[in-house]
TrEMBL record:
This is Aminopeptidase PaaP. It comes from Actinomadura miaoliensis. Residues 253-474 form the Peptidase M28 domain. Residues 489-513 are annotated as: Disordered. Residues 136-227 form the PA domain. The gene is paaP_2.
Length: 513
């Protein structure tokens, strides 16, 4: 999935290029602490796992995507390695619906005047919209006067005089988008436009929660208010063409707990196991999956008494389809089990060949937008652990956007402190980053992002080596305690609870009401 790039902010006491100190053992030693040795994982272990994921992809049609033989073989490999390391892994299978737009939707006013609306700026196709090309009269349904709220489409009675075949114009509010769209469909609407409430300037990014057969768009308030006014005369006609496919799929998570550690205090350490269908996904995200597996294997050799807190290692399925695996896992946990999770670490793309050493911006100091995604309390402490480790080794770090576009997002929206690392995806490296980390400015962090060339050759092993060391160090620190301070268990995002948040196929936040 798409991840936002790391910023150019540099952490640590000395900003040295990766090439100068990137190899394990060449940098300054980390001060002694309860977590134990600074480098408990050998890069050779990680490389062996990467090679196996490459072989799996080669034997499986070139990828390891959800609901493919490559995914099944990857699951079997990880579970087998965990059993050999003394774990009792649990494979959690789940079903989901994958939404895909085959091409951008089209939205235009055709009468009484012609006007075209711009995708993303004026409107977005709602997650789980149906496909169709509709030109019809548009009718506003129970839209309140400007500046007030109403149920607008939440009740079947709102559609008593609705003409069959018309396009329904609805305002966001009161009930879920699913209910609005279902009531419109039952009344015979040919398409639906749900526009945002006053005060919002962006196109409404929404999820219907389940697949629909008719096109459903989310629009900005400005567009919606304009259309409602035009519809009052009874002559407004719109054209909506949605090119969407909803496909039922299955995937799996793998979860394994350390035998020791207090089960009332759990640290989740995870990475997504799946690739996209266009390539084997070795940097994205076999690097993260292999790193977590190597750390887990080393932890399996520790005495149960060496762990104060329990560590739960996890490999998430269907991340590339919208964080499906991690969301399913956290959402289906009993409330008491969810409350026992004290922190979540996430590792997604750890060896980008033109990358940076990105640490998730848990204190929101690096410009990460918090309008939708404010870091839960405790996330800043996790970031500090990573930065402190790399600063002691005289290795620079960069702020990685903490916007929920990887599996930690499933934990963050529920108030669980999170952190981790990423080295950059398809966005381009800045001149300041090139001066700090080496590499080429103006080129993507990962030139093979979501492409067939994301093979074993597409990994910076020196950068990966230091990042695995950091992952192992912070895991050890959190396992030994103390844990970061945790805030309320129910997280608010832009004033809405976690139940109102989901993710699109590109990792963008989508609202369900």
């Amino acid at each position: 999935m798409r991840k936002l790039a790391a910023s150019g902010a540099v952490g640590g006491t000395v900003a040295l290029a990766v090439a100068a100190t990137g190899l394990t053992g060449t940098a300054a030693a980390v001060p002694a602490d309860p977590a134990g040795p600074a480098d408990p994982v050998a890069i050779g272990d990680v490389r062996r796992h990467l090679a196996e994921f490459q072989r799996i992809a080669e034997r499986s049609g070139g990828n390891r995507a959800a609901q493919t033989p490559g995914e099944e073989r990857s699951v079997a490999y990880v579970a087998g390695r965990l059993r050999r390391a003394g774990y009792a892994p649990r494979v959690q299978r789940f079903a989901y619906v994958r939404f895909e737009e085959t091409k951008p939707a089209e939205f235009a006013q055709v009468e009484p005047q012609r006007a075209a609306f711009t995708a993303n700026a004026d409107f977005q196709t709602m997650l789980y919209s149906g496909a169709g090309d509709v030109t019809a009269r548009a009718v506003a349904v129970d839209v309140p006067p400007e500046g007030t709220t109403a149920t607008s489409g939440c009740e079947r009675g709102d559609f008593q005089r609705f003409p069959r075949g018309a396009i329904a114009l609805l305002q966001r509010g009161t009930c879920r988008f699913t209910e609005k769209a279902a009531n419109a469909q039952a009344a015979g609407a040919s398409a639906v436009v749900i526009f945002d409430v006053p005060g919002s300037k962006e196109a409404l990014a929404g999820s219907l929660g389940r697949p629909f057969t008719l096109p459903v768009l989310g629009a900005s308030h400005a567009v919606g208010a304009r259309l409602v006014k035009a519809a009052a005369g009874g002559r407004l006609r719109l054209r909506i063409a949605a090119h969407a496919v909803n496909t039922e799929r299955r995937s799996a998570n793998i979860v394994a707990d350390t035998p020791g550690g207090d089960a009332r205090r759990v640290v989740v350490v995870g990475a997504h196991l799946d690739s996209v269908r266009t390539g084997p996904g070795i940097n994205d995200n076999a690097t993260g999956a292999a790193a977590v597996l190597a750390v887990a294997e080393r932890f399996g050799a520790l005495s149960g008494k060496a762990l104060r807190n329990r560590v739960r290692f996890a490999w998430w399925g269907a991340e590339e389809d919208g964080l499906r695996g991690s969301d399913h896992y956290v959402r289906t946990l009993a409330a008491a089990e969810r409350d026992r999770i004290a922190a979540a670490l996430n590792f997604d793309m750890l060896g980008s060949t033109n990358g940076v050493r990105g640490v998730y911006d848990g204190d929101a100091s690096g410009g990460t937008p918090v309008r939708e995604f404010a870091p839960p309390p405790g996330s800043a402490e996790i970031e500090k652990l990573f930065r402190g480790y790399f600063a002691a080794r005289r290795l620079p770090t960069a702020e990685q956007a903490f916007d929920g576009r990887s599996d930690y997002g499933s934990f963050v929206v529920r108030g669980i402190p999170a952190g981790g690392m990423a080295t950059g995806a398809g966005e381009v490296k800045t001149a300041a980053e090139a001066a700090t980390f080496g590499g080429t400015a103006g080129k993507p962090y990962d030139p093979c992002y979501h492409a067939a060339c994301d093979t074993g050759e597409n990994v910076d092993l020196r950068l990966l080596d230091t990042n695995v060391d950091g992952a192992a160090y912070v895991t050890r620190r959190l396992a030994a305690g103390p844990l970061p301070a945790k805030g309320p268990g129910r997280r608010l995002v832009s004033g809405r609870t976690a139940a109102s948040v989901t993710w699109g196929p590109d990792g963008d936040v989508r609202w369900t009401r």
